[in-house]
Amino acid sequence: MLFAAQGRHVPDNRPPLSAACPHYSYRRRIGIMGGSFNPAHNGHLQSAVHARRAARLDEVWWLVSPQNPLKPSDEMASFSRRIASAQAVAKPHRWIKILDFEQRHGLKFTADSLTKLARHCPRAELVWIMGADNLIQFPDWHHAFGLARQVPVLVINRPAYSYQSLTSRGAALLGRRRRRTARRLACQSRGWAFVHGARNPASSTALRRTDA
Predict the structure, then answer these.
(1) Count of domains observed in the chain
(2) Domain limits at 164?
(3) How far, in Å, are 6, 18, 74, 93, 199 from residue 156 at the CA level?
(4) Angle at CA 24, nearest 5°, toward 60 and 13?
(5) Which of 109, 126, 134, 187 has the fewest CB atoms within 10 Å around its CB?
(6) What is the pLDDT of residues 90-133, one digit of tens each?
(7) Residue 85: CATH number of its domain
(8) Are 97 and 62 spatial neighbours (Cβ–Cβ below 8 Å)?
(9) Mind listing the pLDDT tens digit for each residue in 191-212?
């Protein structure tokens, strides 16, 4: 049986998803999306759909962060609420897994989470997925240089961020290994690609302001 975050069932029509990585006896291409999901929204879902198609991923895992080190905690909903919102958005898509992996293992930095995921799931070919807005602040991340050489990175276009992100220090940090296509990105030990997809202006910040 699978258990939800912190051992409690998330109110949903499908079984709650586990923090433990699914173990496969064969290779799987897995896209990893991290974030607060405060709350999760259709922009997250659209990014996952684009990433899956572009990089030919088998699954996309959403790592719900206990607390993003670069974001204030005063507007952060409870972890269980954010897990529930992610499950609600991803509900129709069985290839999206909602994990409380960072909460369960006491992790707060993406580089550390990817290292532990790789150890737990040795058969998985991991690809880190992030929005173009995050690429701009990527140099501020903990051990960003090492992360860029740890797994391939897939950057998803975001409204108003395309040019700024591609000319940013974050793009320079990822280096010259930009691929023309993301199709075989999961098969690479490093490198990155930028996906131009349908733009979705949804943001967690805007949704919180609407609900206030």
Answers:
(1) 1
(2) 5-211
(3) 31, 26, 28, 19, 9
(4) 55
(5) 187
(6) 999 999 999 999 999 999 899 999 999 999 888 899 999 999 99
(7) 3.40.50.620
(8) yes
(9) 999 998 756 555 545 543 445 4
